[in-house]
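Retro notes - structure team

What went well: the batch runner handled both jobs without manual restarts.
What didn't: labels got mixed up in the shared folder, which is why I'm recording both outputs here explicitly, each with its sequence directly above its tokens.

Job 1
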Amino acid sequence: MQPYLRLARVDKPIGTYLLLWPGYWGLALAAAPGTLPDWGLLTAVGVGTVVMRSAGCTVNDLWDRDIDKNVERTKNRPITSGEISVTSGVVFLGAQLLAGLGVLVQLNEYSIYLGMASVPLVLTYPLMKRWTNYPQLFLGVTFNWGVLMGWAATHGSCDWPVILPLYTSAVAWTMVYDTLYAHQDKKDDARLGLHSTALTFGEDRTKPILAGFSAVMIGGLLVTGVQADLAWPFNVGTGLTACSLLWQLGTAELNNPVNLAARFESNKWVGGVVFGSIVAGRYFC
């Protein structure tokens, strides 16, 4: 069981947090004024997140098995090391996707179609580092689909003027944390001919550009608050989020993997703060 658990990254839950929070943001925003998010939908989105995050990791390791063996951080992953064969990995992926479908069909029809629309993104986003200088942007589009799913699961549709600013904010957030993360692998990526925003921006421009994306995130949250008429606790949470982003960029050492990993990990708390602020802002509005 252990190789499959490591393939699903059960031992590294940070990715689950980062995928889970946007879905919970959407559910919290979709709640009726004066109420809390629906517990049944929170459970369904939580289970679906765990399943689809593990499926995304399996897809990534299948596509990257010949690359991972040349990268120090990834050379011992189960498929790359041979603990799990490619055939077994594909079968495991099929089981994961089937489990994800089982969760998806519990939702309304609009959500089912919206969820199915994300599958091509999940299956192809690991390839973007071969094709584009901005794979982190594609990851952001894919990883934050849960924002849309959370709203759709509640209402059976998407109110775009309300939900799109939150989705844009989440994509910008991914650009910040995953670019910092990508600086850990920039030497290996450059040697292997792979692309990332860490390489595209370079050491001199990374922080100023990520400051811009941080501003987009905060701006998107503020627009969301106005569009959804959220109460004052939401603005407090947005201020705390801005402080965290300032801390990450101000203290990040772009050639220190340990430092960068700590800043990346801190985003699980950022997501929780945003969720809590949306819940409070909706409940007290």
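Job 2
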Amino acid sequence: MTYFDKTYHPPGTPPGTLISNENIQAAALEIKLIDYSSNTIDEHQISSIQDCKPYLHTDTVTWVHLQGGIDSETIKELGDFFDLHSLALEDVLNKGQRPKIDAFDNLLFVIMSMPLKMEGLLKFEQVSIFFADGIILSFCMEGDYPFHELRKRLHKKIGRIRNQKADYLLYCLLDTLIDQGYPALEKIGEQLEFIEEELLNSNTNQTILADIHKTRRELVLFRRNIWPHREVLNELLRDESQLIQKDTNIYLRDCYDHTVQLLDILDHYKELSASLIDVHHSTVSNRLNEIMRILTMISTIFIPLTFIAGLYGMNFSNPQSPWAMPELHWYFGYPLVIATMLIIVVSMLLFFKRKNWL
């Protein structure tokens, strides 16, 4: 997992400098334009920003989405065409920005993080949104097109989106991006459930511990990217912007609630992952104690046997000495010693059993 994924200019670069990032592996740029009202909807894939001109200054809502790699020339052309601030355009190019909202003249600029859990890896895609009266520009430089379901709702006229202004479309975009956290968190929950089952089955190999730490890192990354969404929605709700209607605030509050729910789930998963580490350590400790207990009992059993074997291994059998071992010349001496050893072993095992040590 990458710990630092923000792109940036060399220190000392003037603010607002637009430089394409050659390290970003993005698909070819696609520009989709959707223009709609309560009665009509038009969708086009355009090749140039200039193709947007007929849709400006109309009573319809115009949504332009740029998907894929955006070079500095394209972003400059876009900024000149829509009169966008260079600092905001710089943030669009430099992915990995912290989610935030900036207010410019008759314009709001929003950056969101979209969580994706793909092929066992958690990653966050930056989605940048410019919102003005009647028009929305959105950018996603990497990954797949994230608004398929919203596009279907527009075409099928599902819900109230076609009867509302552009601020409601902004809410729909934010809601779609935030709700992407639920399937990603669901997969992390499945990981934790699998790890818990493995621990309960006494599987304490090092792979399990590595999986726990990987999941904890994902949760920390998840929280770092989701937490600022609360600030974005709070600012949208608190600021009395002329671009946001009062009716839309109700839906933005619902978005805020979803963010809080995601953070609550994240906190629960973090506590669960911490407890899984404790369970892992306890399981390893208990297993070690069990091994030491068995080894201690085996050693305890063999102590008297070793004493007897060592005692009669000295072979002091001089018949003229009064201190010689008479047992060395007994006819049944060897079977008697073996029987004594067996009696000692059985007696100790019965004693351990009675004390519940076995």
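One thing worth noting from job 2: The radius of gyration is 36 Å.
We'll revisit the folder naming next retro.
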